[in-house]
Amino acid sequence: MNYQQILETAAQEASLLAGSGTVASYIPELAKVPPERFGMALIALDGQVYATGDAGERFSIQSISKVFLLALAIRLVGEDLFERVGKEPSGNPFNSLVQLEYEHGIPRNPFINAGALVLTDVLLEHLPDAKSAVLDFARRLSGSPDLEYDAAVAASERATGFTNIALANFLKAHGNLRHPVEQVVDAYFHHCSLQMSCLELARAFLFLTNHGVLPNTGERLLSVSQTKRLSAILLTCGFYDEAGEFAFRVGLPGKSGVGGGIAAIMPGRWATAVWSPEINHYGNSVRGMKALELLTTWTGESIF
Ligand code: GLU
Fold this sequence. Notes:
Layout: H1 3-15, E1 22-23, E2 39-44, E3 49-53, E4 59-60, H2 65-77, H3 97-102, H4 113-126, H5 130-142, H6 151-160, H7 162-173, H8 181-192, E5 195-196, H9 198-204, H10 206-209, H11 224-237, H12 243-249, E6 254-256, E7 261-266, E8 270-275, E9 278-279, H13 286-299
Antiparallel strand pairs: 1-9, 2-3, 2-8, 4-5, 6-7, 7-8
């Protein structure tokens, strides 16, 4: 399979959609990112690396960090996690307060913001320093020891994150947050501000492709069953209120972020990541989704 050629042609075709989305601006620092950026990487389990465009440039991975939180939380508390957070698609915006209210403080899934706040609370309970633990985990998965949080993005989100703070207060009111709201949102905003490139993200997702085992060291991070469960949540909940559309067009488990990144896995074969900052109404990268759709169409590789 000529993945390199496929990535390059997919990038070209996706570029025709330039201007049809908007760079996220509700976190002011994100609005500064040049809209024309595009990068894509694919790393196969045999170690082959394919990349095009700005695949080596770091960007704000935002909600893609929720995958690292979920993997860590599953490692720490196993199935008990799902007593505090559900596993159904939300069918609502990712920061919905309404849903959290009528479901009595149990977030619908780990990838909406309320769910990730609960994951953060779990990490705070079981780890000495949740911020460092997530950073170290991402460094280990990606093989990049110099990954960092972006302090300006974290501060920008802290200054404008009233809805997330409201969600945390709701969770607290329902007894589903054990730490102070301020401590939980501070860690959460830092997790979202993690900067990674497409190449680093694709490598970081390889253990999910490999049924829970880090390919370079052979170390098992999740059991086969835990990996199945995490991947199922990626498929059904990984793309905000557009998970059905993503499964329909792309057919891979994955996760997107409002920074315009998407990471996705083809179990047993490869992991891929794409970045283009212009997002659609739901929060998913317009050109990123298109490029992934072309990748799975032209390779004939998807989970279906
Ligand atoms: N930090 C963002 C927020 O909480 C994450 C949004 C996202 O990427 O879905 O609003």
